[in-house]
């Protein structure tokens, strides 16, 4: 009888230990650690969202890792990152791969409107560039457009805009959005291609410095001139407006989904607005006067 009791106690202890370990290992929106991967173009807004989320949830840790957009998506499929930031439309094959490997339907969580900018040094006489001119440069051996790298969100988005593959285009490279701006003056006649989020933070010291070094070109489409103002991002009138969205491979309501929900709801949208981007989910504020 004593042996039976001892066996039962041992089994109970093992089951309790396994249950305790399982509970400890599974995170939730208020506790745990995850990796979020983002292209360098969206570093500022994602770091701001992660910092605010962790401040509200002190037992969480969100590691923001900078990685090219295409590589980040592969890491998501291979479970190396819990959440990734995307800006381009996935191909049907990529959506199918997501559905198969992640075992979740492809559901983008849209949270902000960003844009691809075409910039020149402050003292350049150039004021605008047309869609036709951009396309011509992308097929020219002169390689006058400078992108921040291959597999980057800026290159992917511009290529998709012209229904081309990045490999079919001709361009120059300076790694990093900020480096493109800082080194552009060394390449007369070239046009830099950067993200709006790189310079959008109104009071960020680095963003302010970069804004003093460049001129943002207006884009001409069908005879109309557009600049990347928040109004034009809100209406999607600026031709290179893009919607940023989050994807996760998390199949339960854990820290990844908690971070996504936060980013898309009011507190997260306030963070997006403070970053100088256009919030995707706009919350109306009504004041009644009596």
From TrEMBL:
This is Phosphate transport system substrate-binding protein. Gene3D superfamilies: Periplasmic binding protein-like II (3.40.190.10). Residues 27-263 form the PBP domain. Keywords: Signal. Pfam families: PBP_like_2.
């Amino acid at each position: 009888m004593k042996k039976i009791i001892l066996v039962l106690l041992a089994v109970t202890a093992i089951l309790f230990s396994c249950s305790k370990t399982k509970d400890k290992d599974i995170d939730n929106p208020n506790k745990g650690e995850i990796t979020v991967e983002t292209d360098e173009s969206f570093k500022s807004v994602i770091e701001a969202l992660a910092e605010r989320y962790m401040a509200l949830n002190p037992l969480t840790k969100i590691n923001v890792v900078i990685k090219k957009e295409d590589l980040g998506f592969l890491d998501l499929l291979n479970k190396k990152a819990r959440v990734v930031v995307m800006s381009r439309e996935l191909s049907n094959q990529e959506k199918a791969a997501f559905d198969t490997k992640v075992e979740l339907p492809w559901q983008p969580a849209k949270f902000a409107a960003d844009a691809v900018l075409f910039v020149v040094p402050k003292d350049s006489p150039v004021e605008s560039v047309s869609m036709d001119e951009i396309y011509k440069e992308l097929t020219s051996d002169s390689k006058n457009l400078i992108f921040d790298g291959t597999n980057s969100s800026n290159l992917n988005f511009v290529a998709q805009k012209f229904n081309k593959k990045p490999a079919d285009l001709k361009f120059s490279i300076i790694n990093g959005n900020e480096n493109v701006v800082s080194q552009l003056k060394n390449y007369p006649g070239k046009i830099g291609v950067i993200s709006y989020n790189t310079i959008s933070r109104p009071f960020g010291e680095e963003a302010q410095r970069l804004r003093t070094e460049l001129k943002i070109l207006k884009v001409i489409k069908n005879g109309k001139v557009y600049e990347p103002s928040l109004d034009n991002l809100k209406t999607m009138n600026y031709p290179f407006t893009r919607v940023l969205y989050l994807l996760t491979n998390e199949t339960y309501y854990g820290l990844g989904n908690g971070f996504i929900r936060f980013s898309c709801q009011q507190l997260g949208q306030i963070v997006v607005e403070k970053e100088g981007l256009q919030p995707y989910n706009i919350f109306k504020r009504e004041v009644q006067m009596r």
